[in-house]
Write a structure and sequence with these properties.
Elements: E1 4-7, H1 14-25, E2 32-35, H2 46-58, E3 62-65, H3 69-83, H4 95-111, H5 122-129, E4 134-137, E5 140-143, H6 158-163, E6 178-181, H7 188-196, E7 202-204, E8 219-224, E9 229-234
Parallel strand pairs: 1-2, 2-3, 5-6, 6-7
Antiparallel strand pairs: 1-8, 4-5, 8-9
Length: about 240
């Protein structure tokens, strides 16, 4: 049986991702792995997470990788830094770089062993820039953050797909499908409730893998869509934060 796995926000936790995939999911090349974005920031190895997914793609695994707001931050920081010429040989961080670093971008730059976004190798920037914003699988709309149901066509608002935090699902606008997303960390009890209660029109899978010492959080979750069962992998990475300078 072909399995379809949805994996939410990884945030640079490559050891946790590898453990989840290699010891619990154990996919074959017929299975479908759908990543919800936020591969980078906060955790120790953003580059390693992207390398790992890229390697799976090169080895012909069936991968759908979606855009998250942290990838959006990174690409915009890169673009602005490329345009940042400085003055008299002195360069200052752009506004978007300063914002990004406050939300984990400093850890992403550290993983590449660089200080400036424009130093990120272009293959990573282009990989992020070309990520999909959403996908449809069976009876599900799968997206990083959610959809703007205030619009007549919620699929037109791409910014909402990676940034929205609160929304009310209007199933008539999405052909009676259910929304699966990440972006906003919720505890395991809430994830279980959203999976088992018919009243919920959405499933939030983000358990805040980078949270440490917070009951009910700190895991990477993977949901299998055929049987609607999920795996939970506890954090394997060392989370230490360095403040931007």
């Amino acid at each position: 049986m072909i399995k379809k796995w949805v994996i939410p926000d990884i945030h640079g936790c490559v050891l946790t991702l590898k453990t989840l995939i290699e010891t619990q999911i154990k996919p074959n090349k017929n299975d479908h792995l759908i990543f919800l974005g936020d591969y980078i920031d906060r955790g120790p190895d953003s580059q390693g997470v992207i390398d790992y997914i890229m390697d799976m793609q090169k080895n012909d695994f069936n991968i759908t990788a979606l855009m998250g707001n942290h990838e959006d931050y990174c690409v915009r920081a890169y673009d602005e830094d490329v345009k940042n010429k400085g003055f008299l040989g002195f360069r200052r961080k752009t506004r978007i770089q300063q914002e990004w670093e406050l939300y984990g971008g400093i850890q992403a730059l550290d993983s590449f062993n660089i200080e400036w976004p424009k130093e990120i190798p272009k293959k990573y920037i282009e990989w992020m820039r070309n990520l999909d914003y959403y996908t449809q699988v069976d009876d599900f709309i799968i997206v990083h953050a959610g959809l703007n149901f205030k619009e007549d066509d919620p699929f037109k608002d791409k910014r909402a797909m990676i940034w929205i935090r609160d929304f009310q699902v209007d199933i008539e606008k999405i052909n009676n499908k259910k929304v699966i997303h990440g972006h906003v960390p919720v505890n395991l009890e809430f994830i279980e409730l959203s999976l088992t209660s018919p009243d919920y029109k959405f499933i939030d899978l983000d358990n805040g893998v980078y949270y440490t010492g917070k009951a009910g959080y700190g895991n990477l979750v993977a949901l299998e869509l055929t049987e609607m069962k999920y795996k939970v992998q506890s954090l394997m990475d060392d989370i230490t934060y360095r403040q931007p300078r």
